[in-house]
Design goal:
By secondary structure, the chain is an alpha+beta fold. The protein has 2 domains: 54 residues, Roll (Structural Genomics Hypothetical 15.5 Kd Protein In mrcA-pckA Intergenic Region, Chain A); 173 residues, 2-Layer Sandwich (Pseudouridine synthase), CATH 3.30.2350. The chain is 33% helix and 25% strand. Strands 7, 8, 9, 10, 13, 14, 15, 16 and 17 form a 9-stranded mixed β-sheet that branches. α1 crosses α2 and α3 crosses α6.
Length: 284
């Protein structure tokens, strides 16, 4: 079965999909002895010979799924130009190249999913699926019932209204309090901005659930591989995404017919204009 060249390269763990595309456009990839620079190129892994920088690609790596409890003051990427600690520093012993699905702020903590399954990552982050993310949050002060209702109905941020959230009071500690908030969006610093709007800045933020995954008793800095049941639940997201894409493609062929009809109408209109001009000349 043919696959896109950049997907095949990424599947071996050599590079991310984006970096694989850069390798192709830079002329560093050869297929059957010919340099390929077109990103749309498809290859058959069973039949075609692919080389990157003169070396044959290794066999595709198996899909890996793991959960990390990201500690505070850790960058949620695999590398950092500033030399700060990243999530990659906590993945000792993981031989397969995985990448984070989404991000957590530098000063936030909690559940992060990492995988080498690009389609799964796209499905988890796609707005269509509205994968719920739940946070345990310590805020300044205590929210009133009206403020909680505002969050549940949606608040206005500088980039528009938020979708309804689920908010639950957890406990009060001295002058501050703990909340549990579930959202189905992924805007930058969204939870912090929502709570600032209602006048309760975030002191501490911990993500405890993401879709069907729960952080459980995983300690900060620890990771574990997902169970078969957890991984299968996530894979169903991908299957649903593929099915929706195929359904969308099946509906698309109706468009050329509309364009063809538009072209016919334009042609007829042009012919009518020529006929009218000819008639005008005869009358003259």
């Amino acid at each position: 079965m043919e696959v896109r060249l950049q997907k095949l390269i990424a599947g071996t763990g050599l590079a991310s999909r984006r970096k694989a595309e850069a390798l192709i456009t830079a002329g560093r990839v050869m297929v059957n002895g010919t340099t390929v620079t077109e990103l749309g190129t498809k290859v058959d892994p069973e039949r075609d010979h692919v080389k990157v920088d003169g070396k044959h690609l290794s066999a595709p790596q198996p899909f890996v799924y793991l959960m990390l409890n990201k500690p505070k003051n850790v960058v949620s990427t695999l590398d950092d130009p500033g030399g700060r600690t990243t999530v990659k520093d906590y993945l000792r012993g993981v031989s397969v190249r995985v990448f984070p699905v989404g991000r957590l702020d530098f000063d936030s903590e909690g559940l992060m999913l990492l995988t080498n399954n690009g389609e799964l990552a796209q499905a988890m982050l796609h707005p269509r699926y509205h994968v719920p993310k739940t946070y345990l949050i310590k805020v300044k002060g205590v929210l009133t019932d009206d403020e909680i209702r505002s969050l549940e109905q949606g608040v206005r941020l500088e980039d528009g209204m938020t979708s309804p959230a689920q908010v639950k009071k957890v406990r009060k500690v001295e002058a501050n309090s703990w909340l549990e908030i579930t959202i189905r969006e992924g805007r930058k610093h969204q939870v912090k901005r929502m709570l600032e709007v209602v006048g309760h800045p975030v002191i501490k933020l911990l993500r405890i659930r993401m879709g069907s995954l729960s952080l459980g008793d995983l300690l900060p800095g620890e990771f574990r591989f997902l169970t078969d049941r957890e991984a299968n639940t996530l894979r169903r997201l991908v299957e649903e995404r593929v099915a929706l894409a195929e359904e969308s493609v099946a509906v698309t062929p109706a468009r050329p017919a509309r364009r063809e009809g538009w072209a016919r109408a334009k042609k007829n209109k042009s012919q009518r204009r020529r006929g009218a001009w000819s008639l005008t000349r005869k009358r003259a």
